[in-house]
Design a protein that fits this description.
Rossmann fold, elongated, alpha/beta, disordered C terminus, binds NADP nicotinamide-adenine-dinucleotide phosphate
């Protein structure tokens, strides 16, 4: 069963992301009530057809589906507590970024209020909401997700990750780790290029080509992590540790801080010291998880 277009929805939180979510619901034709702590952000949404609630409790009373997008878990909990008497029977989809444990704790509390909890992780920036490429991760109350899946699809592709409410946050934060690793590497690279007198703009296409080629390695890397067969495939950790030393030495010589890169060098060096010089990059996952990959 999925929700028909005329069932009322509410959005709590009209920051940059909440405004985008509410706008997507309105654009898809859903009767939408919005609430925000400060009144300013609701004005444009009211002009676009939203009803504006005077309190979080009023907004929750108006929507069978309550979408929450606030600053953090602490704010979310306090706002929902204000609305607690009206939560029974509601589906509450929390799209506020948080940890898996925060998601599980909030889900238990929502169940105690008689609500159906779904936690979500938005893999998009506000301008991408409702556009191709945006996707949102969900986990928690499966019946509630299935009931509202078509409405949630207004935001982007809806990915279901199971009934453990923490799974959306696990995957959200893991994807952010991958993203920040890439951006951090690119920022360091750009600092080197600028220090050497080159324009970052000229370097970007070269970096894009290189990173795109390296993205093709991810499935094989993942398979090696799962199997524990850390085949170097011609790029041993010993070789990589030696090259990485050059990266840091050259950065220092050019006056570029190596703070973003040093932890990777340390990990490579430790893996080699523990007898993994002939292995491939996938062996590092064992070290990251705190285990001794192989007795030295
Ligand atoms: N923006 C992105 O690119 C992006 C992408 C993915 C996920 N997210 C996640 O989406 C969530 C919202 O992000 P955002 O970009 O919309 O942030 P934002 O623009 O900073 O908005 C924060 C929201 O939280 C509200 N708020 C803050 N403190 C409050 C308090 N003490 N009581 C009540 N309301 C309070 C703000 O209300 P006021 O307007 O009254 O201050 C506003 O509605 C975050 O968890 C973020 O990690 C954002």
């Amino acid at each position: 069963m999925s929700a028909p277009r005329d069932r009322p929805v509410s959005v709590l939180g009209l920051g940059a992301m909440g405004r985008a979510l509410a706008g997507a619901l309105l654009a898809a034709g859903h009767p939408t009530t919005v609430w925000n702590r400060s009144p300013g952000p609701a004005v444009a949404l009211a002009e676009a057809g939203a009803d504006v609630a005077g309190s979080a409790a009023e907004a929750t009373a108006a929507g069978e589906l309550v979408v929450v997008c606030l600053l953090d878990d602490d704010v979310t909990r306090r706002v929902l507590e204000q609305a607690a008497p009206g939560l029974a029977g509601r589906t509450v989809v929390n799209l506020t970024n948080g940890t898996p444990e925060q998601a599980r704790r909030l889900a238990r509390w929502l169940v105690a209020q008689g609500a159906r909890p779904v936690d979500g992780g938005i893999m998009a920036v506000p301008s991408m909401i409702g556009e191709p490429g945006a996707f949102v991760l969900y986990s928690g109350a499966q019946d509630a997700f299935l009931d509202w899946r078509d409405v949630l699809a207004s935001f982007g592709d809806a990915h279901w990750l199971g009934t453990d409410p923490g799974q959306a946050a696990v995957h959200d934060l893991a994807l952010l780790a991958a993203m920040y690793g890439m951006f951090g590497g690119f920022l360091h690279a750009t600092a080197m290029i600028r220090a050497a007198g080159g324009p970052a703009g000229g370097f970007a296409p070269m970096a894009t080509g290189w990173l795109t080629a390296m993205l093709g390695e991810l499935p094989a890397l993942a398979a090696a992590v799962d199997s524990g067969e850390h085949d170097a495939d011609g790029s041993s950790l010993r070789m990589q540790a030696a090259s990485f030393g050059n990266l840091l030495t050259a950065s220092r010589d050019m006056g570029v801080d190596g703070g973003l890169m040093r932890p990777i060098r340390d990990l490579l060096d430790e893996a080699v010291a523990r007898g993994h010089g002939d292995d491939g990059l996938s062996a590092l996952v064992g070290l990251l998880r705190g285990g001794l990959v192989r007795p030295a």
